[in-house]
Amino acid sequence: MEAAAIRDPQGGANQSGIRDHNERLVLSLIHRHAGLPSAEIARRSNLSAQTVSIIIRALEKDGLLLRGEPIRGKVGKPSIPMTLNPDGILSFGLNIGRRSADLVLTDVSGKLRAQRKIHYAYPKPDALMAFLSEGYTELTGALPARQVNRIAGIGVAAPFELWNWLDTVNAPREEMQIWRHFDVGLRVAEITGLPVTVQNDTTAACTAEHIFGRGREFSDYAYFFIGSFIGGGVVLNDTVYSGRSGNAGAFGSIPVSDASGNQQLIQHASLFLLERALERAGNDPAKLWDPDCDWSDFGQPLDDWIDRTARHLAIAVVAAASVIDFECILIDANCPPAIRGRIIDRTREEVGRIDTQGIETPTLAEASVGRNARAIGAATLPIIDRYLLSQQRFA
User: Quick one: 188 and 62 in the same domain?
Assistant: First the structure.
């Protein structure tokens, strides 16, 4: 099996053509295993040693791969692991949330190179595009020209139907309806001049977890992300499944009825509820969105919110496990890691109180990417589109 010729080795990540499948396979294997020698790549990929050698030399010349330190064994020549060059591929991610937005610059390892953030009462298209324009100009202006040419594109993560649930977040209907007809992908492309990929925000978060986090451990799992509104994602056969309309894993809409008559998980396990509770208690709700705040002074409102979240999240977890026999349920949140741990511990307790006859009791685990998962996931989308295979598990 012969490899196709690498296109313009000086072009780096700014080439418009997609890469040959074999190149993507080699890059994906190296990415997943954090470095592999050529012999191991050949074994895992079923490509000939000669083909792998040709691909590696071209990718190395292209600036996408680096040679690691030789590993000496008992016999034979030392093996040299190939690793991804962190400076070889960069990407932007724009996360549009209901209370804040993030613009991040990441590298192929998922490391945040730079981040800009804006808070608001509700998202306005013009204000967000001004934030993007200013942030993009600032961040690219700080990069050497050679790294600007390594930018693969920009991914955009945004909630499905951003104009809905307005009463829940006290956003004006007239202004939010602008989003219904606003072509965010087109506007982002006009501002940045980059290829744009748009995805549901919690599916993007699931993508980040699958590529960089604990998701690599499982072939099939459900992923919950607790943000202003709770949502999620689904991974099947090692691939993030976005669904027919791009809204697979819309776990916030799972019915979880209670005495109050509210029916959806989103109304019982979302951060906007804690925001309201803090305000009623005289605590500054803005602290909730401050990434440096550890939430240690939130007191009883936080305890009550965790209890309520866990009770209803447990119902949704069991419902999801009743549809697909997931290996695991991963849970992440826009909160400090210690709080995320408390939520998961309490949810495990609540799952233990639910009748799960007919299914295996779901296994819950903490996700690992954290509160920036949506923005990092957005930035990952152009890298996957242009350099990696979408299915991330390999032998």
Answer: no
Provide the domain count of the chain.
3
Question: Long-range contacts of range 232-238, CB-CB < 8 Å, 24 or more positions apart?
Answer: 232/202, 232/206, 233/202, 233/203, 233/205, 233/206, 233/207, 233/209, 234/206, 234/324, 235/206, 235/210, 236/324, 237/391, 238/391, 238/392, 238/393
**234-255 residue pLDDT tens:** 999 999 999 988 889 999 999 9
**Range in 4-18, 63-77, 217-231, 261-275 with the lowest mean pLDDT:** 4-18
Predicted pLDDT at 175 = 82
Q: Which residues of 37-73 are buried (b: 16+ CB within 10 A; e: fewer)?
A: bbebbbebbebeeebbbbbbebbbebbbbbeeeeeee
Look up the CATH number of the domain holding residue 33: 1.10.10.10
Q: Is residue 105 part of a domain?
A: yes
- Are 103 and 244 members of one domain? no
pLDDT band at 351 (very low <50, low <70, confident <90, very high): very high
Asked whether residue 145 is assigned to any structural domain, the reply reads yes
Question: 220 and 94 in one domain?
Answer: no
Phi, psi of 180 (to 5 degrees): -60, -35
Q: Are 117 and 387 in contact, with CB atoms under 8 Å apart?
A: no
- β-pairing, 36-37 vs 81-84, is antiparallel
The two beta strands, 90-96 and 65-67, are: unpaired
- Contact between 163 and 176 under an 8 Å Cβ cutoff? The reply is yes
Q: State the residue range of the domain holding 275.
A: 214-368
Q: What angle do CA 37, 41, 42 make, to 5 degrees?
A: 120
pTM, two decimal places:
0.89
- Identify the CATH number of the domain in which residue 165 sits: 3.30.420.40
Backbone φ/ψ region at 153: left (φ over 0), alpha (ψ -120 to 50), beta: left
Lowest mean pLDDT among 14-18, 32-36, 49-53: 14-18
Residues 80 and 103 in one domain: no
pLDDT at 176: 83
pLDDT tens, 106-135? 999 999 999 999 998 888 999 999 999 999
Token pair recorded at residue 348: 């495990």
Structure tokens at 218: 């499982």
β-sheet bridge partners, residue 221: 235, 328
Tokens of 239: 């691939």
